[in-house]
From TrEMBL, chains A, B:
This is Glutamine-dependent NAD(+) synthetase. ATP binds at G319, F320, S321, G322, G323, I324, D325, S326, T422. Catalyzes the ATP-dependent amidation of deamido-NAD to form NAD. Uses L-glutamine as a nitrogen source. The active site is at E44, K116, C152. Pfam families: CN_hydrolase, NAD_synthase. It comes from Prauserella shujinwangii.
Length: 577, 577
């Protein structure tokens, strides 16, 4: 049976960095050629990075991207990869507008350019804004085998481009992807791709991006699925990787060029001689997906690392309060950047407890990161005296949080660190934070992690350390003590908020599920608590708008996933309309 | 010839406020009935407010909106407006998903529900995210005359729903709209509507919203255009208004129900008896559009007023620096809210000049608003001493700006004012502002006004005052002195930035026009200056993300109009790709 060796180049490009991304393609195509591959498949928009957002509308950028694809064809040939058929994602543009495109490069030439057909316009995606849909499918014959291609969302459509390729007839389908990570999304991808393989009547070679881009992180998890739906190969998550798969392909008699499912299928022969016989790789390369907590931790580490690195920072600074949020943020930052890149700052006020100060110091000791103490009492006092804030409650509490924010920004100005905000999703949901205070920062690593999940991650990370015989990074006390903002004497979060387990349950239904009051009552929640939570969430929209970005790990993250008006008089109530 | 009296209810609803908006509809329908109108046309989504953004996806809200339309039909009949045919915009939802809808209410019943066909998904619009498109058109016969309807974007399409109505045959077309204000947009609307009137072979009754909603402001400018393109009536801009137009309609023989231009046209007869004869209104009601500066000023006043009012604030506070930006913001705030709602704060540092202090005081005196002086020296000193910031440049400069931001937030916490940020578009474009410093605020009234335009508005506002024999609100000195942030001795904006006239010219091409380097050189700009400006703009994206919203007045405002990645290595350069 004719064979092809397919290589999936699961790489981490940087948005807009055409030079760096070009080098990345040459490097990984070279690896694929060295491994004896006949075809290498890069992810969606691999040459430009993804998503480029409104850069898609910039004509100069589209022109540069088009020119790069052409140039890359020559560079690959010069690098001795000319006989490798390389699928490369890029931004195209024609008279109709910008296109989410992939090109096939072979022997120094661009032998096909195809555009994405289905443009997602929900969740974090605005692709009807950014692109025009394609209407053609290019099938290339290499070594006597017919290769079709679809891009990302195309593979989520039943009866779409994959079905058209199935009708026309192909021996294998390659699918460049940029599918952002969400918890448990990998459970969805494999059955989906298996259904499409059946529709195509051919194996599917699905390459996904890895790496962080602003609030998105891509987990890779590239797969090869046989015609019968069997998983043939799977790449590890969150790392660059070259996945190889040798496919035995029974080349069939295929239909001619023409219209299938409303799309134009074109065919081009690159070579008809069968590939020389080759030894299959010794190991079947099927990586196991990560368990849930490890997967989330990796997502947060990579999201943070790439935001810092791709934006030219070398170090981060943030408040070490002794609490669980800053402790988990610190452990993530050390895993992402190394202890020497992390600058913890303890900023005790007169309401800070002794245990908070010692827990913060203990955290720094365990992590081996930089640590300094900057008391805020003197600064707070000037404001309190000048504005007569003593005993005013919120105004006085906020001053402490804001003095801390200013201190961190001053250290950033002095030493060049990126400031991290340590808020979690629960806090952000109900507005339990001080705008321009603890909300200060360029990035917020645990912004999309609910409070109960923050605790679970802390326990998991400590347990992992113990398994490896290392010191658990997070002081036990930071995990077990009752959470407090410590902005007034004996303050506890539960003075203001419902118990976190209950609160996160309600938020999961209201924020993630977009459910109404009646539904929340039907789920068994107390009406008074639901009312309190819903009001807090609705009123905090203005704080979320000015909050820094952070890595999305849930179905619906705050930010472009959830676009609500600031001015909004609608309140979910018992009465309904 | 049969006649109809049409009423255009150019109203200002609040997003999500179904109770308030219901009352508004009853009140204005009553006015229309009292004026003898046969038909009243409310704007797009008048019952829910516009845009509701992701509230469109909330099932409870859609259900409440549907129920309200039904209830409103009864309320209008109860209020004695039953014989008035009322077109009301609302959010619908069916098995396909949410719909941007308008209903026709008559004698206590909902006699038609129609969905928007063309969904804009560019600029500030994400309507492919929010709605599913309609496929039907409802034509209602009232007093023997056939009335068709199209919603907003539908009227921007050649060969679309209007053409379908033209093919099927109607006597008049009503068009509920929510078309956000942009400078000079009214120049586009009239010729557009005239072209559609020709396509429909019928007059068009175009009602637009007024009022502010977050970063958008709607100017009204509702119009009635005859079959021949003649302007028959025009409402004033930026105020609620009932515009009446008596139309003489030659009722033609029309085609039957069926498919036209791919859309299903349905017909329903409400009444076949001609309307009783009536006197036309004595005055032809054609308001003149405002001259440019007056129009922009009104847009900024209404945008600010409605953000404050619709979010439940009664007063605003912000820094009075003595400079032009805070002076114009103050004059706008007084025009929007009255002098008693404006709390100016002068916050001199050791680098503040004497003239700045006196100009700030003079501004407050002219406006008659509240004014206090809070020196920042003592607060700044504690930071400078504790962190050893003396002579560090940026770190020390930023501390002053941030102390001011904290002071304003503390006053907001104490006294309940909304804090305004006074930055202009030029500053925001090049990042010439301190995040968490002068960028602090809930709303930024002149965020979309270029610096040279700020001066022009100041001169215009002063001249208007002089014409009316009032004191010009803005001290001449604030207009004429060279701009300075006064964060170090003898600092001038031109130390860091090109001359504002040149800078605004480049920004107009780069930000508004999305033009590349070669284009900017072709426009005659110096390559070194272009390079400096482009880099400043690209690097300031993170500051813009955390900036408060402000009223859009240009084609492309910062915010949802311009969505660029934070992590973005693409730079426009001389070399191109």
């Amino acid at each position: 049976m004719p064979q092809l060796r397919m290589a999936l180049a699961q790489v981490n490009p940087t948005v807009g960095d055409l030079d760096g991304n070009t080098d990345l393609h040459v490097e990984w195509a070279r690896k694929a050629a060295d491994a004896g591959a006949h075809v290498v498949v890069f992810p969606e928009m691999s040459l430009t990075g993804y998503p480029v957002e409104d850069l898609s509308l910039r004509e100069t950028f589209a022109e540069a991207s088009r020119a790069r694809v052409q140039r890359l064809a020559g560079l690959l040939a010069d690098a001795g990869c000319g006989d490798l058929l390389a699928y490369v994602g890029y931004l195209d543009r024609d008279e109709a507008g910008p296109r989410d495109a992939a090109a096939a490069l072979y022997r120094g030439e661009v032998v096909a350019r195809q555009f994405k057909h289905h443009l997602p316009n929900y969740g974090v995606f605005d692709e009807h804004r950014w692109y025009k849909p394609g209407r053609t499918l290019d099938v290339l014959r290499l070594h006597g085998l017919d290769i079709g291609m679809v891009i990302c969302e195309d593979i989520w459509q039943e009866g779409g481009p994959v079905a058209a390729l199935g009708d026309a007839g192909v021996d294998v389908v390659v699918a460049p992807n940029a599918s952002p990570y969400e918890r448990a999304k990998d459970d969805v991808r494999l059955p989906l791709v298996a259904r499409r393989a059946a529709e195509a009547n051919a194996p599917i070679v699905y390459t996904n991006l890895i790496g962080g881009q602003d609030d998105l992180v891509f987990d890779g998890d590239s797969i090869v699925v046989g015609t019968d739906g069997e998983l043939l190969a799977r790449a590890p998550q969150f790392v660059e990787h070259l996945l190889l798969a040798d496919l035995d392909l029974p080349s069939g008699e295929h239909a001619p060029e023409g219209e299938y499912e409303g799309l134009r299928v074109r065919r081009r022969v690159l070579s008809d001689e069968p590939a020389p016989a080759f030894e299959p790789p010794a190991e079947p390369a099927i990586s196991e997906p990560l368990p849930d907590e490890a997967e989330v931790w990796s997502a947060l580490v990579v999201g943070l690392r790439d935001y810092v690195r791709k934006n030219g920072f070398r170090s981060v600074t943030f408040g070490f309060s002794g609490g669980i949020d800053s402790a988990v943020t610190a452990a993530l930052a050390v895993d992402a950047l190394g202890a020497d890149a992390v600058y913890g700052v303890s900023m005790p006020s007169e309401y800070s407890t002794e245990h908070s100060r010692s827990d913060a110091a203990e955290l720094a000791r365990r992590l081996g990161c930089h640590f300094r103490v900057e008391p805020v009492a003197d600064m707070v006092r000037v404001y309190v005296d000048q504005l007569k804030l003593a005993g005013t409650g919120l105004a006085e509490e906020n001053i402490q949080a804001r003095v801390r924010g200013m201190l961190l920004m001053a250290l950033s100005n002095l030493e060049g660190h990126l400031v991290l905000a340590t808020g979690n999703k629960t806090e952000l949901a109900v507005g339990y934070s001080t705008i321009y205070g603890d909300a200060v920062g360029g990035f917020a690593p645990i912004k999309d992690v609910f409070k109960t999940h923050v605790w679970a991650l802390a326990r998991w990370r400590n347990a992992e350390a113990e398994k490896r015989g290392e010191t658990p990074p997070i002081p036990e006390n930071s995990i077990t003590k009752p959470p407090s903002a410590e902005l007034r004497p004996d303050q506890l979060d539960t003075d203001t908020l419902p118990d976190y387990a209950l609160l996160d349950d309600i938020l999961d239904d209201y924020v993630e599920g977009d459910r109404g009051f009646a539904d929340l009552l039907a789920a068994g929640f107390d009406p008074a608590v639901v009312d309190q939570v819903v009001r807090m969430v609705d009123r905090a929209e203005f704080k979320r708008r000015q909050y820094p970005p952070g890595t999305k790990i849930t179905f619906k993250a705050f930010g472009r996933d959830r676009r609500l008006p600031l001015t909004n008089a609608w309140r979910e109530t018992h009465e309904g309309a």
